[in-house]
Every structure is written in C-alpha cells, then in structure tokens.
Amino acid sequence: MAEVVPTDERAPTVVVDDLHVVYRVFGAGTGGKGTAPAALRRLVRRQSSPVLREVHAIRGISFTSYHGESVGLIGRNGSGKSTLLKAIAGLLPPTKGAVFTDGQPSLLGVNAALMNDLTGERNVVLGCLAMGMTPAEVKEKYDSIVEFSGIGEFIDLPMRTYSSGMGSRLRFAIAAAKKHDVLLIDEALATGDAEFRRRSEERIRELRDEAGTVFLVSHGLDVITATCDRAIWLEKGEIKMDDDAATVVKAYIADTGG
Length: 258
Ligand SMILES: Nc1ncnc2c1ncn2[C@@H]1O[C@H](COP(=O)(O)OP(=O)(O)OP(=O)(O)O)[C@@H](O)[C@H]1O
Description:
Elements: E1 12-27, H1 36-44, E2 51-66, E3 70-74, H2 81-88, E4 96-101, E5 105-109, H3 120-130, H4 135-149, H5 164-176, E6 182-186, H6 194-209, E7 213-217, H7 221-227, E8 230-235, E9 238-244, H8 245-256
Parallel strand pairs: 3-7, 3-8, 5-6, 6-7
Antiparallel strand pairs: 1-2, 1-4, 8-9
Helix pairs in contact: 3-4, 3-5, 4-5, 5-6
The structure holds adenosine-5'-triphosphate (ATP).
C-alpha cells in the first residue's frame, strides 16, 4: 500500500476491506469418520484417503481503525478473533479482500518465539534485536524490561524453568518496550496476576497514546472495558457489532450471559 500520510488525529492505521480467510486442511476421508472401528478398518486396508476440507474462518469483514485507538476483539471460541489478528499482522494471506496497514504491525501472542533453552536475559536481548532495536537501545531498555516483567532473579535461568504466567509477562515486557505503529495482542495478559495486569493495561494505554493502534483479543471482558475505547464483536467470522467498548461488552454479556 502507498504510505498514508496522517493529516489529522483520525488518520487510519488499519483498513480491512471485505476480508475472507479460508483455512485448507487435509483431513481423513468420510465414511464412519471418528469411530475406532472405522479408523482400524482404514489402517488395515492402508487407506488414508485424505480429503481437503475448508474452514471459512473470516467471512467478509470490513472496518477501519485509527491512530490512538485501542480496539478489543471479543467473541465466542472459534469466532475468528485470532485469525483476524494474524491476517492484520500479515501472517495469513486473505483468500479474498485485503488488509492495508500504515506502519509495521507486530503480533504479540502467548506463543511469541522466545527460546526455552536460553535464559530470560538472552531472550530479552534477542527479542529486542529481533524487533529492530540497536544494541545501544537494548542496553538502555534492559533494566526497565526486567523490572516490568517482575521476573526477578529468574532472569538468569532458562525460560523452560518459568511458569506460563512468567513467560507471558516477559514476552509482554519485551514487546511493550518498543513503540509500535500497530500492536496486536492475543490473550497475552490472561496469565498475569492482578498487579501485572494493572501495569500492562497502563502500558497499553500509553502505547495507544503514543499514537499507535492497539488490538487486543481477550475473553476477559473487564480487561477490554478497562483498556479499549472500541470493541468489535465477532460471531462465526462476521462482525456482529462494532461500537464503543462499554456498549459492545454490555450487549455481548446480555447475549451470552457473560
Ligand atoms: N490452523 C488452522 N487450520 C484450520 N482451521 C483453523 C486453524 N486455526 C483456526 N481454525 C478454525 O478457524 C475458526 C476460527 O478460529 P480462531 O482461532 O480464529 O477463533 P478464536 O475466536 O480466536 O477462538 P478462541 O477464542 O477459541 O481462541 C475456527 O473454526 C477454527 O477451528
């Protein structure tokens, strides 16, 4: 996309235009699928009969987000939230339609690629370099990242010794050390404790105020209302509602019972 020059505070950061994402999966053939006798029969007859199945995860979504917005994505399991984030990040190609972004989108997931066998310290350095920081910037940010993560002396131990909460705290601390044009966060705050969540929510607001756009996928509706000014409710790959966060969360709770 041609570079978008912001002309006012409402300059768009992400434009999603009639987006469709279809996963193509090779599965077992039909005919008694899923039962033990059928599986055994296929094994004995050496039948694999793979069949291409399609999962239409995103079905014609369009919206625009703007500088300084933080947008919560909510919806039931399998409604397409993570798929939408990956498509915005450029990790999944649209089957139809398009995603335009102004600036570099960065996806922060609980599975962000940190190395389990390396210490937290090495991961901080590598993670920062991977985000494009210079060694001097890494040096400058290092202490604040470790402090934010609250990992303490575990920073000298390999990451495989961390609890899942500690791992996601470190990932969030690394990602949040950089100013992002478009930051995409997938449930990263789910495993942190209350104090860490409070600090993370504060940092998300700061990132948003630094004129970037934050997208946050969460099942924690309180996190969405505390952090986001807008929410998009997905259902079966379509937008059911797109409005200010409090309004959407209220409607979602009324529909699902929370
Ligand atoms: N790699 C994949 N291959 C095939 N189908 C997939 C894949 N990833 C997701 N899907 C399917 O796409 C649909 C949307 O999944 P997605 O993970 O985006 O939903 P979600 O709203 O993020 O769910 P959750 O709240 O459970 O994390 C689901 O039907 C899911 O089964």
